[in-house]
Amino acid sequence: MLPSEKFLAAFRSNDEAPRTLVERAYLSLRHDIVCGALAPGERLRVEHLKDRYDVGAGTLREALSLLLSDALVTAEGQRGFRVTPISLADLEDVTNTRVLLETEALRLSIRHGDAAWELALVAAFDRLSTAERTPESLRSGAWEHANRGFHEALIAGHGSPWSRYLLGILYRHAERYRYIALRAAAATEAGPPRDVHREHEDLFRAAIGRQEARAALALEVHVRNTCEVLKKAGLGAM
């Protein structure tokens, strides 16, 4: 994957067929980091991972270098790579930055989106609603795929490659924490369950109704809720 192609990979799904061995390794590693199969802070040993991902050492190092630019791995000089650690402070920073960029991108998308944008947004919301009605979709990854598509459709009317690229990186980091939030919600019975579908519906209706301020507020509430779920689950010392 060339550096310039990372603009196109911002919301790229692991379901899409990779075009090169480097891209295959990159997408596989990214998926395993985001979902927690490779734990935060875990050392990434090339000699072990090349067998796990069935690629050569050179290919794997190229993939890890791409993940450096996504801030999903860190380099340790001559000692190799590690999965980027997680913390509540990092989650708050990711959340605040995402709110800042994504709400503005949404406002501009609502302002400039055409009829094709509206049709694509309706289709994305319908797919997400179907996934939310299917419990199996959480385990299979179908919900995450539909959720990613919905957020992409919301800002698609803006059309800025830089916004898409930067928000794609932030989205992946937020996704890491969502997996933690899902596990935390399953492990605790404190408080009422989060109505994610209602959050998405409020956001969709405001966006499709061209209500910029209401849509931006709904998006901010939605994005911040994951951070609040983790705090309520007692992960402040994470």
UniProtKB/TrEMBL annotation:
Q: Does the keyword Transcription apply?
A: yes
Q: Tell me the InterPro entries matching this sequence.
A: GntR_C, TF_FadR/GntR_C, Tscrpt_reg_HTH_GntR, WH-like_DNA-bd_sf, WH_DNA-bd_sf
Query: Where is the HTH gntR-type domain positioned along the sequence?
Result: 19-86
> What GO MF annotations does this protein's record show?
DNA binding; DNA-binding transcription factor activity
Q: Which UniProt keywords apply?
A: DNA-binding, Transcription, Transcription regulation
Q: Which domain of life is it from?
A: Bacteria
Asked whether the keyword Amino-acid biosynthesis is assigned, the reply is no
Protein name according to UniProt? DNA-binding GntR family transcriptional regulator
Q: What is the lineage of its organism?
A: Bacteria, Pseudomonadati, Pseudomonadota, Betaproteobacteria, Burkholderiales
